[in-house]
Each structure stands twice: as structure tokens, then as C-alpha cells.
Amino acid sequence: MDMEKVNSMDFGEFVEVFGNVVERCPLIAAAVWSQRPFSDLDDLEKHFFAFIDALPQEGQEGVLRCHPDLAGRELQLGTLTAESRREQTAAGLTSLEADERRRLAELNARYRARFGFPFVLAARRSGRAAVPAELARRLHRPRAEELRAALREVRTICRLRLADLLGAADPAAP
């Protein structure tokens, strides 16, 4: 899809197409639509990031809470968004052994209890073994540092999803 098409979308179409660029946050896409026209992918991405950055901390944490646990309950129930399912599949998280799933569930629960939001990672840029290792590593960070790290991961996920929608090459991490 080219930028001319993006800029010509009406509100409903834009929210339908870009509503899950930030996991389960169509409100962000709705706000970004009003910033048209966009010059390119970087410009579009900048508007998504600016919205998230302008949120108070509680709002940013709310954005994080919209993300599912990696290899968690939503995967088991089949209720992941299509994007999350593709990303978790690419990371090998849909084919974990029972002991790997239990270990990840334990780490996810400890992380949520400590920080109040789920562990967020651009899963498709990670491998099956790297996910629990990264989760264990980040579990010991100070809360403010981890909030910043989780939001960086949201930006990476956003960037990758925008690139997918626009048929662009896999971009470097922000």
C-alpha cells in the first residue's frame, strides 16, 4: 500500500487498517488519522510514537496492558489478534513444550506482579529460547527503567506492523 492510498482513507477505513498497529489500541489510530497527510512511513510512524509519548504514565501503562502474555492464556484460547499470533508463531512460541510453557507462564506471572503490566517484546525479532531469557533479565530492572524498555518494544512492534501494512522492508529497531 502506498502513502497516497493511506492519505486518501476515510476515518473508518484508516482505523480498520491501522487499528492494531499498537496492540488493541484503535483509539491511537483514530487520533493519528487526523494528522494526515503523511509524507512517508517514517512520518506515519512518528505520529503513532508521538501519541504514545504524550500519554501520561498511566496511559502508557494502559497501552502495555493491551498486550498479551507471550505464549500465555490468549494463545492457548486462540484469542490473540492476528498480528500477535503471527509474531508469536515467528518466535516459535506456538510450539513450546509443556515445560517451556510452564516456565514462561511462571516468568510472565512474576513480571506482571512486579510491574503491573505484561512483558512486552517484539517477539518476531526473538527466538524461542531468547524470550524467557530476556524476560528473566528484565524482571530485575527498576520499574521506571522497565517501563521505558517496554515502551521501546511497543515502538518496535508498531514499526514492524506499519512496515508490514505498507509493504516496506523490515525496518531497524527505533
Beta-strand segment tally: 0
Looking at the structure, what is the overall shape? globular
CATH top level label of the domain at 69-153 = Mainly Alpha
Order of helices and strands: HHHHHHHHHH
- Low-pLDDT runs of 5+ residues are none
Distance between the termini: 22 Å
How many individual helices?
A: 10
List the helices and strands and how they pair.
Layout: H1 3-8, H2 11-18, H3 26-33, H4 41-54, H5 57-65, H6 73-77, H7 82-90, H8 98-115, H9 130-138, H10 143-166
Q: How would you explain this protein's 3D organization?
A:
The chain is mainly α and 174 residues long. The protein has a domain at 69-153: UraD-like, CATH 1.10.3330. The chain is 63% helix and 0% strand. The chain has 10 helices and no strands. The chain has helices at residues 3-8, 11-18, 26-33, 41-54, 57-65, 73-77, 82-90, 98-115, 130-138, 143-166. α3 packs across α4, α4 packs antiparallel against α10 and α8 (98-115) packs parallel to α9. The mean pLDDT is 95.
Gist of the model:
It is built from 10 helices and no strands. With 174 residues, the chain is mostly helical.
